[in-house]
Structures are given as C-alpha cells and as structure tokens.
Amino acid sequence: MMKEPQDYLQDITTMRTLMERSTRFLSLSGISGVMIGVYALLGVTTARYYLCFQPLDLLDQGGDIFLAETTQMKLVLLAIAVLVLSLGTAFILSKQKAAKKGEQLWNITARSMLVHLSTPLMVGGILMLIFFSKGWLGFLAPLSQLFYGLALVSVSKFTFSEMRGMGWVQLLLGLLATALPAYSLLCWALGFGVSHIAYGIYLHYKYER
Amino acid sequence: MKFSIAGLNKVFDSRIRLGIMAVLAVNDELDFNALKELLEVTDGNLASHLKALEKEEYIEVKKSFVGRKPNTKYEMTPKGRQAFGDHLKGLQGLIM
Predict the structure, then answer these.
(1) Looking at the partner chain, which of A15, A107, A108 has a beta carbon nearest the beta carbon of B22?
(2) Closest CA in chain B for residue A9
(3) Total structural domains within chain A
(4) CA of residue B95 relative to chain centroid, distance
(5) Is residue A9 a part of any domain in this protein?
(6) Model confidence pLDDT, tens digit, residues B28-85
(7) Quick check: B19 and A15 CB within 8 A?
(8) What DSSP designation does B5 have?
(9) Which residue in the set A5, A18, A107 is minimally distant from B22, CB to CB?
C-alpha cells in the first residue's frame, strides 16, 4: 500500500511533536508565573512598607548589619513564605496542566529540567547561606536574582525557550542591583515580580489557549 | 525491497517505529516505560516494534538492574542514526 503525500506530512508532524515532548517540559503553567509574580510584589511591598526595610541600611559601615534581630527574622520568614507559596503554586498548577493534557507531571522531561535547574540553584542557595551567616545581608537579594537567572538560562533548552529571555532579564537586574545596592529591592521587584507576570501572561496566551 | 524509489526506508513505514527513532535521536537513552508513555502504545505493540528495530541493528538494548528490578534501556546505533537521517532526507525530497 502506497502512502499519500499527506501521510508523509503527518509523519513529520508526529516526529516533531514527539521530539519536543521528549525533550522539553511543557506542563509549566503560565498562570502560575503570574501568581508567583504577584506573591513577589506582595512580599516586596510588605518588606518595604510594613517592615520598613531599606537595602541601603544594610551596606552602611562596610556591609555590617544595620538591622534589628527581630526585623531580620521577619524578613527571612517572609522570604521563605514567598518561596514556599511560589513553589507550591507552580507545582499544583503544572500538575493540573499535565492532567489536562493527559500526561504525567513527573516524566523524563521534568527530570531533566530539575537536574539542570538544581546546579545553579543549589550553589546559589549555599552561597546565600554563607553570606547570611557572615551578616552580609545586603547582597542576598541580588545573589538570589543572579543565580535564578543562571538557572533559567541553563534550563531554557529543557522547557519553554522563552525562559532564556527571562533568565537574562534576571541576570541584568541582578548585576545592576549589585552595582547599585540602593535599588536592589526595586530590581528584585522588577525581576521576580513584574517579569514573572509578563512572561506568565505571554506563555498563557501563546500556549494555553 | 527495503527502499522505495524516493529513498524512503520501509522499516520506517510504521509511524510507531518512526516515533521510536525520533525520540531516540534527541535523547541519549530511554527506558521502556518512558518510550511507552511518550508514544502512547501498549506493551506488546511497543515490544514488537522495538524488536524489529533491534533486528535491523538500528537500536541497541542495554539491560541493567536498578536495585533488584531489571531495567531495559534503548539507544540509537550509528547505523540507526544514518538510516534515520537518510529517511528524513527522503521525506524532505518528497514534500519539497
């Protein structure tokens, strides 16, 4: 039986889909990006206006701490809350998206994405703990942004390629924040807040409708 | 005859075999369950197509143990990569 030309086109379409589905994690939810951005903005607003956190304080006196112990603890708890809420939201919404597509969340692409995320995030996390233990609090926000940016760039081959762009946004803002610490909270809000929301909306309209 | 006029490989007439080759072309190695999930086929169906590709020496089977569970991994051979590449060129020629 001879195949018709449209059969060959179908062959190619099938192969393309399979190649992409076997190498890229595409269950990442755009809506979760928007929500993570909102959490980040709420977190920054709380830190700035409720806890009266001003990054410049931290760098006076050669990087020595200039922050009450209780405020420091509150800031750490706030940061952890934002992180946990973000990871939880991303997990739940991605699981839903995978289910909608009739796929498992945990598959070979999820695994390779996590492997490539883990190196920069782990090194960054440990470095931040070291800085924290030494009392160099002023650079924690820029550091988190720099290593998150590196993680996004390195993972972009294994999920939506748009992650590369978002990674570079974080990297540039992180470098800017390191050079101009007075603006580090603003840079963090732009990176983790605004750019997550923007990319989340973009991914949602491009892939989820 | 193994090849049609356009240089297409008869072995790849089956879309499942073509699919197996496509995912193995972009992944170093995949185990049986990963292939099954990606291609959405039954165990028996997948096994018979894998067997056929193995017989052509287009893919290679690597058996090992994860703890006490046997784990079978598949990877593409250089011969398979060549054949797959030629088939893609054939397809390209047909639709251009």
Answers:
(1) A15
(2) B95
(3) 1
(4) 23
(5) no
(6) 889 998 899 889 899 999 999 999 999 999 999 998 888 888 889 999 999 999 999 9
(7) yes
(8) T
(9) A18
CATH number at residue B64: 1.10.10.10
Residue B4, domain member (yes or no)? no
Q: Which domain holds residue B34?
A: 10-89
In a domain, B1, yes or no: no
Contacts of B90 in chain A (CB under 8 A): none
Confirm whether A81 is domain-assigned.
Answer: yes
Please give the mean pLDDT across all residues of chain A: 89
What is the interface pTM, i.e. ipTM, of the complex?
0.84
Q: Is residue A159 part of a domain?
A: yes
How far is A114 from A98, CA to CA, in rounded Å? 16
Q: Which of A154, A159, A46 is nearest to A170 (CA)?
A: A154
Could you give the number of structural domains in chain B?
1
Residue A34 lies in a domain: yes
What is the residue type of A103? E
Q: Which helix (H) or strand (E) holds A88?
A: helix A69-100
Q: pLDDT by residue (tens digit) across B44-53?
A: 999 999 999 9
